[in-house]
């Protein structure tokens, strides 16, 4: 499939409008040769990686699959094993991916082959007017049956591209969970966006020892719990009953302190009355207010000075 992706990308520089849009164009056969050369380099990386992985996992009967296109997709699925996605369990997902890849490559390869032949032999027309581009095949060059087949393969290729994408996502989840469990998510996303990099990533991790992902995650969770118990005890940082996290008989502001930095006051200071919350208003009355307060403390029931101090609205 990597060759089809590469050929489709490079062949756009051979379209009739390439020189007008990109400023240059290349012959179709050059585009296919460049795509083939890149594909062979990437395929060699993937083949070497899968050969090492299969040998380490003891799958000696499947070693030959590492070197053949389509068969290597099946091998990736077998090396990844059963894929668990929530409650969904997928077995032999490599078979589904391989079959979807075969049909996709057949449809897309037919379309690209027709395009490449037409571009190389000048069987197309091209118009550019008022920033509008138009192109097509020469009239009568393709029969009605060929046009129908071409359109059918175009539509099937677009539909199958989504099927292949989903299948390859699950295949890569299985393989990268075994060889890079801590960072498999971004690798799966990268391979979905750029399928040719899959072989390079597999080669990087090929010599690692595969792990059971579920067992690996359980061991990680257990290690985290042990570290927490070593630091806070078996009940965690707040104890079994949600005790004060600042320590026994302690508050976060220090002993005998309130959040405003003043000593705690109250009954510990004896019988001294708390300050008058409205003192700022009574102070404005001057000496009369002080006399009124003195008379109230001595048990007087009234008086002119007392009434002046108590008259808030006077």
Rg over C-alpha atoms, rounded to the nearest angstrom: 40 Å
Beta-sheet strand percentage? 5-15%
The average pLDDT score comes to 78
Q: Strands of the biggest beta sheet: in what spatial order? A: 1-2
Helix content: 55-70%
Spans where pLDDT lies below 50 across 5 or more residues = 266-270, 283-314
Number of helices: 12
Instruction: Report how far the terminal alpha carbons are from each other.
Output: 95 Å
Q: What is the 3D shape? A: elongated
**N-to-C SSE string, H for helix and E for strand:** HHHHEEHEEHHHHHHH
Helix/strand class: mainly alpha
Count every beta strand, where a strand is a DSSP E run of 2 or more residues: 4
Short description:
This protein is mainly alpha-helical. Helices cover 56% and strands 6% of the residues.
Give the tags.
single chain; 314 residues; mainly alpha; two-stranded antiparallel ribbon; 12 helices; 4 strands; transmembrane helix; membrane; transmembrane
Write the layout of secondary structure elements.
Layout: H1 2-10, H2 18-22, H3 28-56, H4 71-80, E1 83-85, E2 88-90, H5 93-120, E3 124-129, E4 132-137, H6 144-179, H7 184-193, H8 198-205, H9 213-232, H10 279-282, H11 287-297, H12 304-310
Antiparallel strand pairs: 1-2, 3-4
Helix pairs in contact: 1-3, 3-4, 3-8, 4-5, 4-6, 5-6, 6-7, 11-12
Give a structural overview.
With 314 residues, this protein is mostly helical. It has 12 helices and 4 strands. It has helices at 2-10, 18-22, 28-56, 71-80, 93-120, 144-179, 184-193, 198-205, 213-232, 279-282, 287-297, 304-310; strands at residues 83-85, 88-90, 124-129, 132-137. The strands form 2 sheets. Strands 1-2 form a two-stranded antiparallel ribbon. A two-stranded antiparallel ribbon has the order 3-4. The longest helix is centred in the middle third of the chain and has 36 residues, at 144-179. The chain starts with a helix and ends with a helix. The model is unreliable at 266-270 and 283-314 (pLDDT under 50).
